[in-house]
Specification:
The structure is a single chain. The protein has 16 helices and 20 strands. It is α/β, with parallel strands linked by helices. The protein folds into three domains: about 190 residues, Class I glutamine amidotransferase (GATase) domain (Rossmann fold, 3-Layer(aba) Sandwich); about 190 residues, 3-Layer(aba) Sandwich (Rossmann fold), CATH 3.40.50; about 100 residues, GMP Synthetase, Chain A, domain 3 (2-Layer Sandwich), CATH 3.30.300. Helix 8 crosses helix 13 and helix 15 runs antiparallel to helix 16. The protein starts with a helix and ends in a 13-residue tail after the last strand.
């Protein structure tokens, strides 16, 4: 579903201190944004081909060029609009960004041949520069490039080398710099310091991106957008929709009606527990809707994960439309959409491939009549939690594990049936109990079970069994954009496996997923 201009310009109405990150398709682009925001500077990721228009619209404090899997010397590769330099803004190119600057301004980029660099490298500072303020003359960096800059454009000088190759260059008088390494990854020592020097010394940022400022400016913007109208909010029970609802409630009060839908895909006892917490602890006007039959009938015999997500996204909207008719036909729908949802669902912010359609972004029906209010769509999960703390939300809401909008439907590989849902709910409840018992809830990002579409032979007592296989998935992460499998104690894994096999009739084997993101995703579908 195409974004409305209102959604595209939401952040522009709120923030005056902004840095643009031009996306050329790098796997690290979102990580650059994370590092910039950690320094209390607001930034936006935009596709490189929208740079000229966006610069005119927002007049940013500076521009960062991301890396790319492409090659500057390949015909048809992503190019840099020359208007970028006419704007006379501070520019920092990273990896492909450095090569693009060099090639665009008259330098020479060549294929790396046998002098490619991947992984850790030692960078030697060869020329003092503002970027190196408070840095040692030698530090470790992370390289990931095949091509290399052989000749710099006129007026540029080498600022650092790695094994004889250009590792950093710039034309400080023109406020243009480039790094061949990636300062945004943890393997680059002092990488955050380099970004900090660029943002604060070159761009003149003050670091006014705080959650307190976000709350006030967002509430003001919501109030202005909704005016005297009403809104309806889709609650899921998670921190995202909860914080979004509280922001809108702060802006328009009881003109907000929240809807919590039992779609038949929730975890064990989820509907009753969450609904009670909302009513007793948050004092929001919440309506509970039992729509289990609608969702499960639409999902019958559906195996493709993208189709599942789109069906669920559409059904949610239909429920909200029905409830809107009961509650004064509010024209606005509030959603807890986050930045990772947008990035993974669409390519509007750059040439990166669509990973999956999130039900509240790519899964929305084209004929939806609501105008969307998505106050969190520029935030990462950890930022949303900070907003929740700023709003005084209880920790049980803020630190709940992320739960996919499509629910257990995307944790059952293959067809979704009541029988398979029952198996998964019971197994999942054991995982939640044991991770909480082990004191792991604040250490891990998510812990859950995936029910696989295969069966395996087992032995229970003296009998042969032929039953379902469950995959245990436990990961650590900061924002969901990257994740690592959790190295939890073996005894915890043993308890989980033993309990699932003993207590959940129909599962006789448990396996542990040790895939990180990337290359995998956190959810299996």
């Amino acid at each position: 579903m195409p974004e409305s201009s209102q959604n595209r310009n939401w952040s522009k109405l709120i923030y005056h201190e902004n840095v643009l990150i031009l996306d050329f398709g790098s796997q690290y682009t979102q990580l650059i944004a994370r590092r910039v925001r950690e320094l209390s500077v607001y930034c936006e990721i935009i596709p490189y081909y929208d740079a000229a228009e966006k610069i005119r619209e927002t007049r940013p404090f500076g521009i960062i060029l991301s890396g790319s899997p492409d090659s500057v010397i390949r015909e048809g590769s992503p190019a840099l609009p020359l208007e970028l330099f006419k704007a006379e803004l501070p520019v920092l190119g990273i990896c492909y960004g450095l090569q693009l600057i060099a090639a665009s301004l008259g330098g020479r980029v060549v294929s790396g041949g046998d002098r490619r660099e991947f992984g850790k490298a030692i960078v030697d500072v060869s020329e003092q520069d503002m970027l190196w303020t408070d840095l040692p003359d030698q530090f470790q960096a992370w390289m990931s490039h095949g091509d290399r800059v052989e000749t710099l454009p006129s007026g540029f000088k080498v600022l650092a080398r790695s094994g004889g190759l250009i590792a950093a260059a710039g034309a400080p008088d023109r406020r243009i710099w480039g790094l061949q390494f990636h300062p945004e990854v943890v393997h680059t020592h002092h990488g955050t310091d380099i970004l900090k020097n660029f943002l604060f010394k070159a761009c003149g940022c003050k670091g006014d991106w705080t959650m307190a400022a976000f709350v006030q400016s967002t509430v003001d913007s919501i109030s202005a957008k909704i005016g005297s109208d009403r809104a309806i909010c889709g609650l899921s029970g998670g921190v995202d929709s909860t914080v979004a609802a509280l922001l809108v409630h702060k802006a328009i009060g009881d003109r907000l009606t929240c809807v919590f839908v039992d779609n038949g895909l929730l975890r064990k006892n989820e509907y009753e527990t969450v609904l009670q917490n909302f009513l007793e602890r948050l004092h929001l006007k919440v309506v509970g809707v039992d729509a289990r039959q609608k969702f499960l009938s639409r999902l019958r015999d559906v195996e493709d994960p993208e189709q599942k997500r789109k069906i669920i996204g559409e059904e949610f909207i239909r429920v909200f439309e029905e409830q809107a008719g009961v509650h004064g036909d509010p024209p606005f729908l509030v959603q807890g959409t986050l930045y990772p949802d947008v990035i993974e669902s669409t390519s509007v912010r750059g040439p990166s491939a669509v990973i999956k359609s999130h039900h509240n972004v790519g899964g929305l029906p084209l004929d939806m009549k609501f105008q969307l209010i998505e106050p969190l769509r520029e935030l990462f999960k950890d930022e949303v939690r900070k907003v929740g703390e700023e709003l005084g939300v209880h920790s049980r809401f803020i630190y709940r594990q992320p739960f996919p909008g499509p629910g257990l439907a995307v944790r059952i590989l293959g067809s979704v049936t009541p029988e398979r849902l029952a198996l998964l709910r019971d197994a999942d409840a054991i995982v939640q109990e044991e991770t909480e018992r082990a004191g792991l809830l604040r250490e891990i990002w998510q812990s859950f079970v995936v029910l696989l579409p295969i069966r395996s032979v087992g032995v229970m007592g003296d009998d042969r069994t032929y039953e379902n296989v469950a995959a245990l998935r436990i990961v650590t992460s900061m924002d969901g954009m990257t994740a690592d499998w959790a190295k939890i104690p073996y005894e915890v894994l043993e308890r989980i496996s033993t309990r699932i096999v003993n207590e959940v009739r129909g599962i006789n084997r448990v396996v542990y997923d040790i895939t990180s993101k990337p290359p995998g995703t956190i959810e299996w579908e």
